[in-house]
Request: fold
Amino acid sequence: MKSGLLAQLAVTFATMSLGAIGGANAVLPEMHRQVVSVHGWLDDKTFANLFAIAQAAPGPNVIFVSLIGWHLAGAAGLAVATIAICLPSSLLTFGVSRIRRRLVGARWMKLLQVALMPIPLALMAASGLIMAQASDHTVLASLLTAGTALFVAFTQRNPLWALSVGGLLGGLDFLLISG
Amino acid sequence: MSDATQTDPVPIDQPVSYGSIFLAFSKIGLCGFGGVAAWAHRVLVDERGWYTDKQYADLLSIGSVLPGPNVCNISIMVGEQFHGALGSATALTGLLAGPLLILLGLAMLYELYGNLPLVQAVIGGVTAAAAGLVIGTAIKLARRLRPSFGNLLVGLLAFGGAAILHLHILLIVALMVPLSLALAIRERRP
Reply:
């Protein structure tokens, strides 16, 4: 039932919204758990493919959630998923913005910043591991993952280059070798 | 300590319209291939002159301790400063609308041609690279950070909770934020 699915999408993404410290990549493990394992809405491969497509588009990573909504329930799904993931954290930010003058420069803000740093980082590392498990079933894929990780970590170049090379090598491999 | 108006925008003669807020954040969203934050600085500070470097840094520091993508949080705060709730909605919509349209185009192509073997092979390559992109970003951020013992402990626990135990994100955050704060306070004491 479609309205049932929309309601589930809304609840699923709204509940993880406030956990997205550091951005959408921090909730990727949770999204994978909910979307693939708990609800069975997508298989591993589709989840990873949709993530890659969202990375290839410009804009904040949170649009991956919009894409999941679109894939599952069309335009309504896109709207519901996007609003659900954005609304709780946006309301919090809006409230904080109104009292920001009291926050800036406060000593505990600095402390909070330092204390929060490792959490999104660790969640992002977990995300990377989960994405690699979902996508790397060949030697070439593992090499592409490792190569891109090094490229992104140690150069300042636009990561879109690495995504393009990934697509190119994937296509060439199919045409010349495995296809 | 700070003076009271640090994150307020630079006073400008002309009022900032909804339209120019929308356009500024559209540009940030559409230009931000693989790094929206850099473009947010370029547009808000260098091009529009709405903020000084220091003001922008303060905005970013608030945006980064709140849940949600940093740039979305910045759009909400900037919109709020100029036009309240409607300003926030305008800025966030501007940030997301363009990228969502492009994303829809890509999604439709995927649904039309995604089953062709060649297309699958190309997407497979992009997907493997995208996994590397996430790992590489984590490595890059970790390199900039000089982690304390507390940072490392919290990082390992959060990683284990997400990657191995598959705990709910809110549980991880609810456990790790107080622990990390407590450790940070302890480490600060001589």
